[in-house]
Amino acid sequence: MNFTSKKLALLLVLLVAPFLVKGQTISSPDKNLSLKFELKNGVPSYELSYKGKPVIKPSKLGIEIKDAPSFMDGFTVKNTAQSTVDDSWNPIMGEERTIRNKYTELVVTLSQEKNNGRYINLKFRLFNDGLGFRYEFPKQKDLSYFIIKEEHTEFKLAGDHKIFWIPGDYDTNEYAYMTSKISEIPGLQKKATIEINAQQPIKNPSVQTPSMMKSADGLYINIHEAALINYPAMFLNVDTATMTFSSHLTPDAVGNKGYMQTEAQTPWRTIVVSDKATEILASKLILNLNEPTKYKDVSWIKPVKYIGVWWEYFVAGKSTWAYGTENNVKLSDDFSKLTPNGKHGATNERVMRYIDFAAANGFDGVLVEGWNVGWEDWIGNWKEEVFDFVTPYPDFDVVKLREYAKSKGVKIIMHHETSASVTNYERRLDRAFQYMKDNNYSSVKTGYVGTIIPRGEHHDGQSMVNHYIHVAERAADYQIMVNSHEAVRPTGLHRTFPNWFAQESARGTEFEAMGGLAPEHTTILPFTRLMGGPMDYTPGIFQTDLSYYKTGGNQRVNTTLAKQLAYYVTMYSPLQMAADLPENYERFPDAFQFIKDVALDWDHSYNLEAEPGDYITIARKAKGKNEWFVGGITDENSRTSSINFDYLPKGKKYIATIYADAKDANWNEKPQNYEIYNVVVTSKSKLKQYIAPGGGYAISIKEATDSELKGLKKL
């Protein structure tokens, strides 16, 4: 470099430096999204736009610290750095065989000179489908330990958007969804906060994430978080005067939000944006913001299709988890001396029937709930020593059933309900997992029904967030897969801990037997709860009118039978249950065939049509096979689905078996009326398929010989 160019380079640095203080702008790789960072009077802020439309107006960033100067203001820009990344990775199980990770990154280092030059990093990653950003606290001389009083991240929205929401609550996410304008949230908060076991609603107007919105000018906006590790879950305070959301972290028993030791970071705050609802469903931003797994051996992590001793507990008292009639028991009691109630579900005879059914129909596992002692007084007493996870009831022979299942090529799925007594579970965890290993159980369903022990802690607090991860990591030591219920909502951690392969963490099928779910519910969940990860929704209920059991209950599952089939495609999970009683599947063997056939792991997914709260249609290609499956669902309104098959290989013909609502079907009248027909499809085929109110349809597409295609109508 000559003298003149050296001077020019220095001049550029001097010219750029003042602008670094005022702001930095980056664009997504496709240039549709633009992020602007600014420092105004020492306070950091950001704004986000999509195709020139404002998504997030200038919004402040900051962390309030207890008993120490906060990371709120007094900042100067110490450094900025930009970079781009474009790579790909392959999930162990997932909706796509390969996921592209392409983004533009901006890292801003902010220094507080008044606090001895203490500094933090703000890291922004702008993808084609949205933004992720987080606070990072490098290890430094004057920053080692600190307590978070509150995080003050703002999301100032550009309008009074339509929003699909559930109220903020530290202990449950099992609320029914509300649909309203943001401005209507305060007036609807009381109505939305229905009574649920173990709840702690936030007093001020607030919503949970993932929060799904649609603007008046057609933008779809989803706010959530990614990589929730060693930090409390985030809720969103709602300020309707300014249309601003602000972060609200879950407190612990003494009111603190988080305990940090540098080097540390917050979870990523995520904003997924598109003018197409289907692209919201296709987003892999949250997964991309999670770290790859460090597990060296993942060969034992596999999809699971299962049935179980479960739904019969919800069908108006058909069976019970408890063995005895007593309601005051201790783990030290001799449970063989209890008075049998005559309705215990987890008996040798019943479980063997389920094993036979699973083996005959190609299922991998049988979940058995109520197998272990302690269910007589497990709930509502805030009791610590509830279960020991290794002692079966007198009518459940672990060794006999282990060997019987093994002879049939089926595995029993363990159930660890903790009754929210986390202290008890953690003390017994290794012994419980060793017991599973000794008895050929390779997966476990954990549950956290009730108010947490240690007392004063919450399901979504930092301590419990760490507990769920601890369980997943310890389970991995024993090569055990985990399906957690009543846990904090997922944030993409199934990438980092792939044996934590499913969660409930929302209002699932069990609530169809406890007041019912609105027909629109499952057209909202993929845009909200499932943005963070797979859900154990437990679909497949064929007997939707529960008065059929003549036990006094008149509850109804608010779907058609065909819609239950569609869930196996629209509600992604590598863990899928055929949740109904075996005898109901035996009554409808032709419809049951779809559940037997449908894949659990995928090469590609195609989001064909969608509108949150109204309808969803998704097609998926089975991993490693020339088989495709399609699921389409609607809300309480009938509609005609219009889709094509251009994802099929060109020039080839396939048989499509279509499982559809009959013309007279309805979620509350004739829900079991369906039709099944075969047609020939190619990549040029188009389908217009009627969907009944509260209904759906499912399609399986497979290769076929010319003789099999002969005589079939071409679509």
TrEMBL record:
Keywords: Calcium, Hydrolase, Signal. SUPFAM superfamilies: (Trans)glycosidases. GO terms for molecular function: carbohydrate binding; hydrolase activity. It comes from Flavobacterium macacae. InterPro entries: Aldolase_TIM, GH, GH-type_carb-bd, GH97_C, GH97_catalytic, GH97_N, Glycosyl_hydrolase_97. The keyword Transmembrane does not apply. Coiled coil: none annotated. Its cofactor is Ca(2+). Gene3D superfamilies: 2.70.98.10, Aldolase class I. Residues 601-702 form the Glycosyl-hydrolase 97 C-terminal oligomerisation domain. Residues 310-506 form the Glycosyl-hydrolase 97 catalytic domain. This is Glycoside hydrolase family 97 protein. Residues 26-292 form the Glycosyl-hydrolase 97 N-terminal domain. Monomer. Residues 1-23 form the signal peptide. It comes from the Bacteria.
